[in-house]
Amino acid sequence: MPARDWALAHGRAHLLSTAPRPCNSGSMDRERARELRAVAPLVSIAGNKLTLISTCTLVQNAGKTIAFSSADALRRGGEQLGIALTLDGKRTVPVASWTMGRDSRVALIELAGPFIDAPGFDVTPLSIGAVCASIDTRGAPAALVSLVVDVEDGKFVRHAVPVQVDTVEAGGMSDDASSYLATAIEQDPDDLTVDGSVLFAWLPPDPVLGRPSEVVALALAVPYRNKTAQPRDRPAVAELCGLTDLGTALPFDQAGSEASNELGQVAGEIREDD
C-alpha cells in the first residue's frame, strides 16, 4: 500500500476557502478517468427487471473486493440487490450482505463471490492506494460522481458534477467536530443523484514528493438534510462522509514482508550491537 494513502487519512483537514483550480482537461475528460470505472450501479435484481437504487464504488486490496454506498439507499433497496458490472446491466454480481460503518451513513457491501475482471466489464475496482480517508482536495478540482440512466438507450452513464468542498461545524449524524459540505460550482445541477455518489479529486503532480498527477476518491456523499450551514453563495448539495472504514474492512497486504510487532531500525539511528 503506498505510504501516502493512510498517512493522509490521519492528517487534520482544514477549511478549503479557495476555489478549486480550473481543470484543464474539462468535465468530459474528467468523466473518462480510469479511476471512475470503480463507480458502479447498485441495482435491485428482484424479478426480471433491474432498477437503479443508487451508486456504489468498488475497492480492493490483497485480493479482496468490497463496495461502499449510502446506508439509507441500501435500506430502501430491499433484499435482492446486486451490482451491475456492465453499463447495460447484463452482467451483475449479487450483494451477499452489508453492514454500517462506524459512520452510520456509510454502508460496507460484501459481494456474493470474488470479483474476477473479465473482457467487456465496465467496472474496475479501485486499489486502496487510490483512496484517501482525509476529505481534503488540497485546492485541486473535485467532482461528485454518480450514475444516471440514459433516456435514449436505457444504459447507465457515469456523470461528474464539479463541486467545492468546505468544512463547517458538525451537525446531523456526524460524531466529528467538523462536517464537510459539497457545493456545486454550476447553479442547481438537476442531473446529480447525491445519495451514494463519491467525491473524487484530480490532484496535480507534486514535484517535491516526486508524485505524478493522481485521481483519488475522498468521500461518500449523502443528502445534506440539516441545511443549517451555507458556506458558499448557494446551498450545499451534499454532506460528505470519510472512508476510514475501508482501511479495516479490507485485509492488510503483507506480501513481501514478514508480520511482526517488533520495531525495526530506522535509517540514521545509532545502532548498538552486543
Question: How is this structure best described in words?
Answer:
- The chain has 274 residues and is mainly beta.
- The chain has one domain (3-249): Trypsin-like serine proteases (Thrombin, subunit H, Beta Barrel), CATH 2.40.10.
- 9% of the residues lie in helices and 34% in strands.
- The protein is built from 4 helices and 13 strands.
- The strands form 2 sheets. Strands 1-2-3-6-5-4 form a 6-stranded antiparallel β-barrel.
- β5 and β6 (106-111) form a beta hairpin.
- The longest helix has 7 residues, at 3-9.
- It is globular and about 45 Å long.
- It starts with a helix and ends in a 25-residue tail after the last helix.
- The model is unreliable at 1-25 and 256-271 (pLDDT under 50).
Defining key terms:
mainly beta; Thrombin, subunit H; 274 residues; disordered N terminus; 13 strands; six-stranded antiparallel barrel; six-stranded antiparallel β-barrel
Number of helices: 4
Tell how many strands the DSSP assignment holds: 13
Structural class, by secondary structure, is: mainly beta
Give the name of the CATH architecture.
Beta Barrel
Morphology:
globular
Brief description of this entry?
This protein is mainly beta. Helices cover 9% and strands 34% of the residues.
Please describe the topology of this protein.
Layout: H1 3-9, H2 26-31, E1 39-44, E2 51-61, E3 64-70, H3 71-77, E4 81-84, E5 92-100, E6 106-111, E7 126-127, E8 142-149, E9 156-169, E10 178-184, E11 198-203, E12 214-222, E13 238-241, H4 245-249
